[in-house]
Amino acid sequence: MPDGRPTPQELLEIAVTVARQAAATARRMRAEGVAEVATKSTATDVVTAADRAVERQVVESIRRLRPRDRVLGEEFGPAGGGEAPAAGEEPTGGGRPAAAPAGGPGAVRWIVDPIDGTVNYLYGLPHYAVSLAAEVDGEVVAGVVRNAATEDEWTATRGGGAYRAGRRLRGSTETDLAQSLVATGFGYDPVRRAHQGRVLARLIDQVRDIRRFGAAALDLCLAAEGMVDAYFERGLQPWDLAAGGLVAREAGLRVAGLSGAPAGPDLVIAAPPAIFKPLHDRLVRLDAAGGP
Ligand code: IPD
Predict the structure, then answer these.
(1) Could you tell me the pTM of the whole model?
(2) Residue 267 Cα to ligand 1 middle (Å)
(3) Helices (DSSP H) in the chain: which residue ranges?
């Protein structure tokens, strides 16, 4: 760009290169056997040696290509969810995601989930992904989600559309919630899960069916493809949402929270415009953003 800022397309090209290498590492490490399984927020929230190795690889690759950028990663820092500083800067305390990238106008921050779908990874279910997005001035402008097991890949740039294998994605054309296949997911905290289960029990007879695949970034991409009609989940973190959220939005889906709030930890709904409102209103009545 004339002002020296990278274009979304330039950032996407970097994201795709880095994500492909990272996905190859995840796939290779899975073939060699899952190692060093530790728990994080609860006894069922796991992190493996591969999550950490893949995240380190992404940070190192980005530092080589764009040394001044920051990287927010799921596993970075002692408690995870921290930010790797730009070269020569002090790290932010790990465990809490920084709200926005520091630096002047045009600052780029990368948001990485090294392995989204870690439980699938643990069990060898071929449904786990590297998710990498680039944010400029706090806005996600480019993103890639790559299923490391199948090598399916979804990309998007802000204003430039969403694609898989060269095909532009447009989401589902379904207009009736009762005929909609709806994907969702659950948090790791058992009390939250119980609430999410109650919400689901009162939604399942209002829709065609429910799917729970176990990787939020891929859920968003499947919604972008129209392979499910809609998706919602409470408790997503920036690394779950950043790249897949852009893919879904660029495929024409509405991606938002409840009552005009942006999509975020309270709730993410991704749905074609015709389904968004009925699903949203139903989720409000079911208190989907409530509970712990
Ligand atoms: C999880 C997956 C899962 C979703 C959880 C996420 P992780 O991410 O995306 O589908 O339901 O909310 O935390 O732990 O596999 O990276």
Answers:
(1) 0.92
(2) 14
(3) 8-32, 49-65, 118-123, 190-201, 216-225, 238-250, 273-285
